[in-house]
Design a protein that fits this description.
Shape: globular
Structural class: alpha+beta
Oligomer: single chain
Radius of gyration: 30 Å
Helix content: 10-25%
Number of strands: 45
Strand content: 25-35%
């Protein structure tokens, strides 16, 4: 550095001037190079290399030991904004601390995930906070404020919200289309992102893999039309990994990668996460796009400016590094962070049922803790690496004493035999303590092929330093395996030394993994019936396990295996499974000798239901159902503790068992926290952040994003759920009273008193819902109730607290598709105060002078096809590749749109439809009907106007039927004399009745 630093190094100058100065000093090539995730250093200017993207969903991930907090859905269950803010602060502090040790640790944190938990079968349910936009956005604001820090201009870290937009499925996630009508877009999906952006605590967003309304999110017009209008700050939009290439490869939306990167950059993507650390491919595409005129340097400069602005806020260009540069490398897993992890795990526990006061457990209780998760502390794909772990077994032994706690895991104890080849045997090898497990190897930066650094655990290689499984003739030398069936035909096999069977790159099967994990899990198998035995399929490769030359390996596709003449090419050997002990027998023995049984059931986050894999059912896996039933049959004083990333349908357990709890995977302190709840050291205060349904039949289709039309979530759901949104019990009782609700101008003030009427201190989560006038307009479907405020309060026994909320009248608005605006319907609004969305304790109403919902002025404005009130059998698609919507029938069949209360004025004689494709459009208003035949227009983006006679007047409901491969963008209504120039007018139309 010189004595006269350049202006971009001067903290006394306005930020824009500093960014302008640095941008001007960069060459064109240097600017383009900054558009990849891994940006190179500009040594001549003293500008360091920079990396966008550091995972930090509930702790700093993938970069070494860190404090691990509960999964995001568990943080959602706390309903505690301030707690979540403190967790964010701890995570941000640890990111800074880790960076002092390793400059590969990024400060641009890709967290939190604010996708709404619309559908509980979504594989990434664990990553979101709630199904409700208010709760999700409140917790997102809290977490990002903690990550950002409280300095007015400098940021501790720069959070990026994931995943823009309407993204709730892993099935075909890079090619599926989320059809999102305007009301769902504005009232639901966008609302989850908006509050955190407006709060000034977010540095950017990451677009999702999917398409919304026929257009990939990475070229979404909503980035310009919505996101960037919510704030004056520069926002950095970072692509998801590999998504820019998907625009050509899997989505086939563009013909060339140059077109794709150009379109994404112009749409608003500023940083391309593609091809790992190798920037050459993306940079080459961008340079060719520039050379061919698809991009201009102002397009590049706009994106570079956004990145530089974020880096400036992080203090990178300040001489002293900014106020957060003095982080200590010791600020990781500090005692305060350990205590916070325990507190968060405790607050995330939800008591679902507690009949007869079985919980809390009395002092001196003899407890049997059983189940596949009883002695587990699971992490997930986006977890950090915990320094310490606590299972429920650990926690209960610590709390009640090891002599009063018995344990049965409930696995099936089995041996495997491969015909004449013999019994499967584990050969003793390197001691487990001599080589770190996969997580630790990732943190140490050990990678297959010498890949750079601890940035991606997907690159961790399987172990080859241990001998493969072999076979033996003597059954006494055979290995005994612990078989756990996780549902869906997916099982794990664990050897006696605690290692799981796993498959490395050489194809051999070894007892080598400390736990299942990795991007492609190598520790899961399936049994496929074959004759009198089974083929063992390796889930990670799809190959079958074979015995060849005395060793056990996964058969390569081209192999013909000895003794496998009757098997197709590439199939493995046939095995028999000898069951030495059923898991339910061990569970029953432990249960019969205890005062109380705690069955710990749930999921392994790396197996069923995870990124790339949606669940197929809400049911608890059959193996765990057997354990639950065996425990209850042996001992009616059975508690089911569900530890999972998502809800289950446990109606039978709810009907039979006296007590049930749920917690997400609670991080490093999960077991201690649950034990303290069970013992009554802490009263449970968590609340469900999403609806728990009674059965799979209660669910809509996974890819149906129309929560209004299909009556999804607590907002619109009409069926009684197993457990409602916001549900959660306590060891205490609470009374609500003294409700006051007044309107003061543009504010509604609500106040009420919550009193702890029980004998123990406990938390209560007071929830305020609003119900709009249900007769605001004919055909208008508004939420049954909608959460608008919440507060978690700790109350000593007998204590009372006066809770107050201020609600802007504008919060009552809905998106009025009839006039393309936010509108507050006039009338009496019900205010519902209670302990869940269904447990309402107090009600009041306030009158609001809103805007009457008038009929659609279709004679004047026409109709946008996507502005319907109801639909069946259609989806919204892209009008062009840049902007605009159209509607088509699903699969080229037939679909229907309904538009209520259309004002056709004194007379309409002609209708004109703006359409592409080929097919027909039928229009029906009362007894008036017409058909517009659409000849082939030449392509899905080649639109034409076709018309027909349509004599109608006054206010009528309109039905529009789409037939064939036609895309409808807009409908225009005209008097006879206005429609003379409309192509096709009168040629193929028919009018039945008169003006009805």
């Amino acid at each position: 550095m010189t004595d006269n630093p350049p202006p971009f190094r001067d903290p006394g100058l306005p930020p824009d001037e500093r960014v302008d100065d640095l941008l001007a000093r960069l060459t064109a090539d240097e600017r383009v190079a900054l558009l990849h995730q891994f940006t190179p250093a500009v040594e001549r200017l003293g500008v360091a290399a920079f990396r966008t993207g550091q995972e930090a969903l509930h702790g700093v991930a993938w970069m070494g030991p860190a404090t691990v907090f509960p999964q995001a859905v568990g943080l959602g269950a706390t309903w505690n904004d301030e707690l979540v803010r403190r967790v964010g602060e701890a995570v941000g502090t640890e990111a800074r601390a880790m960076r002092t040790r390793d400059d590969r640790v990024g400060l641009n944190l890709w967290a939190p995930t604010v996708n709404l938990l619309r559908h509980p079968l979504w594989g990434r349910n664990e990553e979101g906070y709630a199904e409700d936009p208010h709760l999700t956005s409140a917790l997102a604001v809290a977490y990002t404020r903690g990550l950002r820090g409280d300095h007015p201009t400098r940021w501790r870290t720069a959070p990026v919200l994931k995943h823009w937009l309407a993204h709730n499925n892993e099935t075909h996630r890079d090619t599926s289309n989320s059809s999102v009508r305007p009301r769902v877009l504005y009232e639901y999906d966008l609302r989850a992102f908006r509050a955190a952006v407006e709060a000034g605590s977010v540095a950017g967003v990451m677009p999702a893999y999917n398409l919304v309304n026929g257009r990939p999110n990475h070229v979404s017009p909503y980035l310009r039309e919505q996101l960037r209008r919510w704030t004056d700050e520069e926002l950095l939009v970072c692509s998801d990994a590999g998504a820019p290439s998907n625009l050509v490869d899997s989505e086939e939306y563009f013909d060339t990668h140059e077109e794709a990167v150009a379109a994404a950059l112009v749409a608003g993507v500023d940083s391309f996460t593609d091809h790992g650390t190798d920037a050459k491919v993306v940079v080459g595409r961008l340079q060719r796009a520039l050379a061919s005129g698809l991009l201009s340097m102002p397009d590049v400069d706009a994106a570079v400016r956004r990145q530089l602005s974020v880096r400036l806020r992080l203090g990178e260009f300040d001489p002293d590094g900014g106020p957060y540069a003095d982080a200590s490398p010791d600020d990781i897993d500090t005692p305060a962070h350990q205590e916070l992890a325990r507190e968060a795990a405790e607050q995330a526990v939800v008591l679902l049922k507690n009949d007869g006061g079985l919980l809390p457990l009395a002092e001196g209780t003899r407890v049997a803790v059983v189940g596949l998760l009883a002695d587990e502390c699971k992490t997930d794909w986006y977890s950090g690496t915990p320094i310490r772990r606590s299972s429920v077994l650990d926690g209960l032994r610590e709390r009640f004493g090891a002599d009063r706690v018995t344990f049965a895991e409930g696995v099936d104890r089995v041996r495997l035999r491969c015909g004449a080849a013999g019994w499967v045997r584990v050969v003793p090898g390197t001691d487990a303590g001599e080589r770190p497990d996969a997580e630790e190897r990732a943190d140490a930066g050990e990678r297959a092929g010498g890949a750079v650094g601890a940035l991606d655990p997907a690159l961790v290689a399987g172990r080859t330093d241990l001998p493969p499984l072999t076979v033996c003739e003597d059954p006494s030398d055979a290995a005994e395996f612990a078989l756990a069936d996780w549902g869906g035909g997916v099982l794990t096999l664990r050897a006696a030394d605690g290692r799981y069977l796993s498959v490395a790159e050489d194809g051999y099967v070894r007892a080598s993994a400390d736990r299942p994990g990795g991007w492609v899990v190598q520790e899961t198998f399936g049994l496929v019936e074959h004759g009198d035995g089974y083929l063992i399929e390796h889930a990670g490769t799809g190959g079958y396990v074979s015995v060849a030359a005395g060793a056990v390996k996964v058969a390569a596709r081209e192999e013909i295996l000895p003794g496998g003449d009757s098997l197709p090419e590439g199939r493995g050997s046939v095995f028999t499974v000898e069951v030495l002990e059923r898991g339910e027998d061990a569970v029953a023995r432990a249960a019969a000798d205890a005062d109380v049984v705690v069955v710990v059931a749930g999921n392994d986050p790396h197996i069923n239901g995870r990124e790339t894999q949606d669940r197929t059912t809400l049911a608890l896996p059959p193996h765990q159902e057997r354990l639950r039933r065996a425990a209850h049959l042996a001992n009616p004083r059975t508690v089911l503790a569900l530890t999972s990333s998502y809800p289950y349908a446990v109606a039978e357990a709810d009907a039979e068992l006296p007590a049930l709890l749920w917690t997400a995977h609670g991080g490093q302190a999960a077991g201690t926290a649950l034990a303290r709840i069970l013992a009554g050291d802490v009263s449970p205060g968590g609340r469900l952040p999403q609806t728990w349904y009674a059965a799979d039949t209660d669910l809509p289709d996974l890819l149906d994003y129309d929560i209004i039309g299909s009556r999804q979530t607590y907002l619109y759901g009409e069926d009684r759920p197993l457990y409602p949104f916001g549900h959660g019990l306590s060891y205490s009782t609470f009374a609500y009273g003294g409700l006051e609700a007044t309107r003061d101008g543009e504010l509604i003030r609500v106040a009420f008193t919550v009193t702890n009427t029980g004998a123990v201190a406990a938390d209560e989560v007071a929830q305020l819902y609003v119900r709009a006038p249900q007769d605001a307009a004919a055909g208008l479907v508004l939420p049954r109730r909608r959460l608008v405020a919440h507060r978690r309060t700790h109350l000593a026994a007998g204590a009372a607290h006066r809770t107050t909320f201020e609600l802007p009248v504008s919060e009552l608005a809905f998106w009025d598709v009839r006039h393309d605006r936010w509108a507050v319907a006039p009338g009496a609004y019900e205010l519902l105060v209670g302990a869940s969305s269904e447990d309402v304790r107090l009600t009041a109403s306030v009158e609001v002078d809103g805007q009457p919902i008038a009929a659609r002025p279709v004679r004047r404005d026409g109709l946008a096809a996507n502005g319907y009130d109801a639909q069946q059998g259609t989806e919204i698609v892209d009008r062009t590749k840049v902007a605009g919507d159209a509607v088509r029938a699903l699969d080229g069949g037939a679909g229907e749109l309904r538009f209520y209360a259309c004002d056709f004025g004194p007379v309409v004689g002609v209708v004109s439809v703006e359409v592409a494709g080929e097919g027909a459009v039928d229009l029906i208003a009362g007894s008036t009907a017409t058909t517009v035949t659409v000849p082939a227009t030449g392509g899905v983006y080649e639109y034409a106007h076709h018309g027909a006679v349509f004599a109608v007047s006054g206010v009528r409901d309109l039905r529009v039927l789409l037939r064939g491969a036609v895309r409808l963008a807009r409908i225009t209504f005209m008097a006879d004399d206005e429609g003379q120039g409309v192509e096709g007018q009168g040629d193929d139309g028919r009018s039945g009745g008169g003006a009805a």
